[in-house]
Design brief:
By secondary structure, the chain is α/β, with parallel strands linked by helices. It folds into 2 domains: about 170 residues, HUPs (Rossmann fold); about 90 residues, Pantoate-beta-alanine ligase, C-terminal domain (Pantoate--beta-alanine Ligase, Chain: A,domain 2, 2-Layer Sandwich). It is about 40% helix and about 20% strand. The strands form 2 sheets. A 6-stranded parallel sheet has the order 1-4-3-2-5-6, with helices on both faces. Strands 7-8-9 form a 3-stranded antiparallel sheet, covered by helices on one side. Helix 6 packs across helix 7.
Length: about 280
């Protein structure tokens, strides 16, 4: 199967309309490029859920704050396309910013609920409105039946699920388990910023989340277990933004002892900010 690249919304719709006329289902995997094994796992899962898959590659400027360097975000279009071709992806959508946000663009999606949980939104206030806006556009542009997102960006996943439901978008949002290195480190495009020694240190986030989860399952209070994890990470050299236990669906602070929990963490290692999460 030959991979086809389209760069305009019109061409994207032409291709996916052909699939629908043939009675084929379509999945979309939205990405910002710099693809790694985690993205490829999403693609493989997408091909299990639908007859065809389109992967979008677009570094979305609306989810970068004024202090974040949009130009620094890793890009390697040729490598990304080669990887997707090996996975038998039939269609890649690679628009430029003008295609997604033309000169008179004046509408955005504003999200609340899990987007206002005091997690990533506390440190990147504009982030989820930017994500929701571009993802809603991609859902509408592609007409996909389902979309797949990694659980590593867990708050993002819950925001997108809520957004799709609230806007009655006819698409199923599917979360896929975090892909990890043998060390336990969650795969991320930002891992390439880590030095060799930092890559070894970075495994501390996952290990401490695991230890906190074990304590909670053993009867410890969630707040006590996450505080201990945060102290441990600080000792290991991290600058901790948060380590917390939240309701696995709403991301609200738990109010009862029988709620399903998700442990989430964000911390800096050198100049690189890492996030991770696990179920309890």
């Amino acid at each position: 199967m030959k991979l086809k690249i389209v760069r305009t919304i019109e061409n994207l719709r032409e291709e996916t309309s052909l699939w629908r006329r043939e009675g084929l289902t379509c999945a979309i995997v939205p990405t910002m490029g710099a693809l790694h094994e985690g993205h490829l796992q999403l693609v493989r899962r997408a091909l299990e859920h639908a007859d065809k898959v389109v992967v979008s590659i677009f570094v979305n400027p609306k989810q970068f704050g004024v202090t974040e360097d949009l130009s620094r975000y890793p890009r390697d279009e040729d490598k990304d396309v080669a990887l997707l071709a090996q996975e038998n992806v039939p269609l890649v959508f690679m628009p430029n910013a003008q295609q997604i946000y033309p000169a008179e663009f004046a509408t955005s999606v504003q999200v609340s609920g899990p987007a206002k949980a005091g997690l990533e939104d506390k440190f990147r206030p504009q982030f989820f409105d930017g994500v929701a806006t571009v993802v809603a556009k991609l859902f509408i542009q592609s007409g996909a039946d389902c979309a797949l997102f990694g659980e590593k960006d867990y708050q993002q996943l819950q925001v997108i699920k809520r957004m799709a439901k609230d806007l009655d978008l006819p698409i199923k949002v599917i979360g896929v388990a975090t892909e990890r290195e043998a060390s336990g480190l969650a795969l991320s495009s930002r891992n390439r910023y880590l030095t060799k020694s930092e890559l070894q240190q970075a495994t501390g986030i996952y290990k401490n989340l695991q230890q906190a989860a074990e304590k909670i399952r053993g009867g410890s209070k969630a707040q006590s277990a996450t505080r201990a994890a945060a102290r441990s990470l600080t000792t290991l050299g991290f600058k901790v933004d948060y380590v917390t236990a939240r309701n696995a669906s709403t991301l609200a602070v738990p109010q009862t002892e029988d709620e399903p929990l998700r442990l989430l963490a964000a911390a800096w290692l050198g100049k690189t900010r890492l996030i991770d999460n696990i179920a309890v």
